[in-house]
Amino acid sequence: MGQCRLPVQPADDPDVDDNSGTRFGNVKFSRHEYNTLPGRHRQKSELSVEFKTSEPDGIIFYAAENRHIDYTALYLKDGKLHFSFNCGTGPALLSSPETYNDDQWHTVMFNRDRQNGTLVVDDLVVAEGSSPGNTQTINVDQPHYVGGISPEVLNNARHNFKGVEGGLIGCLRNFRASSRPAGEPSYLEGTEPCSSKVETGSFFAVQGGYIKAVENFRVGLDIDISMEIKPRSTSGILMSVHGRRDFLLLQMVNGALIFSVDNGRGPIVATYIPPHEHH
């Protein structure tokens, strides 16, 4: 059998340009960090960004002081946008009534004027609210996080996200502060240009890799397993479960699918050879 017609390394999308945006979420804690943003934000802040995602949850923006009492946060939870801020005397939480995880581009503006906040999506005001107490300013330390946060920040700030712990899995573009482009990030982690030519699922590159689905797994007497595969090579392990002597193994060898099981009485092997070459 010959080599798979698909390249071992995916090709770059030639249609990606500056307006395509940035994809977040390919790795854990992917994010952009900004040490400075245009304008002054202690009493008032005007922030906006375009986003596109099919996932229900994800952190879009976060900035806080080191105790995470004063903060500004924008995130998705159950597909709805949540804008939260705290001037130091209690949090405000503004939530959209509609969901926006439809894999279409949306523009969100999350503005604060002292204790008063406004959440605007696609030019419509969807929520307004105020924080309690008398404090009217927010003090934050650098950096400002976009698309996700660092693991160190998550450990101290998870209470500000109402159960959302991961960054956005999707695309962002046109991040602006005080109606001006935010510019280039001071630091970026695990992001890439946003292509529309993507598929759901997990990709394993030529460098290798694996997913540990569960820590402990008991095969038992009966089991049904199904998966979809789109291989770029004709040989490789698809699934493996091993005990001290027992094992279950699904692999592809030179284009043939081989399923092997040993429950302690010797291996049982089933082989499927496709009638046509799918490579």
Automatic annotation (TrEMBL):
Span of domain Laminin G: 21-194
Protein name: Laminin G domain-containing protein
Database matches in InterPro entries: ConA-like_dom_sf (IPR013320), Laminin_G (IPR001791), Neurexin-related_CASP (IPR050372)
Pfam families, A to Z: Laminin_G_2
Species for this entry: Daphnia pulex
Domain of life: Eukaryota
Record-linked Gene3D superfamilies: 2.60.120.200
PANTHER family according to UniProt: LAMININ SUBUNIT ALPHA-LIKE PROTEIN (PTHR15036:SF67), PIKACHURIN-LIKE PROTEIN (PTHR15036)
Region (Disordered): 1-20
